[in-house]
Structure formats: structure tokens, C-alpha cells
Amino acid sequence: MAALAALRLLLLFPWTHAAAPAAAAGAAAVRRDPPIGDRLLLPVSEWHKGSKHKLIEADAACFEAAASSGDMDCLLCQVGSAVSSGLPYALRRKELFEAHAVAGIVEKHFGEKHDLVAELCAGSALLAMFLCLSNSRRRAL
Description:
mainly alpha
């Protein structure tokens, strides 16, 4: 009977099967992304922030819902929605969440003292975009 219940769980939640033996052995469980259909049912705040999966068109609706409900920062949701709908499969979720987090740290550390952002062309320019969008007086080089 227990084996049947475990099989049902495996069929319902296939992304967890790799972490189950490690968790049973007392090791830390490995976090896996749920399938895309299941992830779209979750609020953006519950998504795996370190996922290397790319943003897809369907993510735009999730970001819009999160912005209207206050689930996540409005600026993050607006940029996430624009990138998801305009450039699907071009940006990893991890890069979006990391750029937003670093922009928050830079904003907190430097405040409104500095109005010039130097973009060094070392990535996707997402950090510079977040910094410029968070303060309308900032300009990027």
C-alpha cells in the first residue's frame, strides 16, 4: 500500500524523485523546478530564484498577476513581463532575479547621490536597466 502511494506521488510530482532518496537518507534535499505547467500556477514569489531555465511567453501573465497582487516588486514584474513577452527564451530567470537583487543593494548603498550608470557591456545590461528605471534622473553610458 505504501509503495502504491509513493508511485502516485512520483507520477503527480515527477520533479521530486531525484531529491527523495537524498532526503530519506538525511541529506539536504535538492531543489528542483516543477514542470512548466505547474510552475505557472505558483505565485512568482515561490519560483526557484536560482533556476537556469529561461523566461517564456507564458511567464508574462504570471509577472503581471504578481504585480497587480503585490506578490513581488512592481519594477521586477514589469521588466520580467516585458522580457518574457518580447524576448522569450532569451534570458534565464536567475539573471533577472539576481540583477534585481543587486540593483536593490546598489540603490541602498549609494542612494540617490549618483546619477550616472556605466554599462560595461559585460552582460545583458539588466542591472543598468533596473538602476535607471528605479530612478528617472539616472542615465546609462
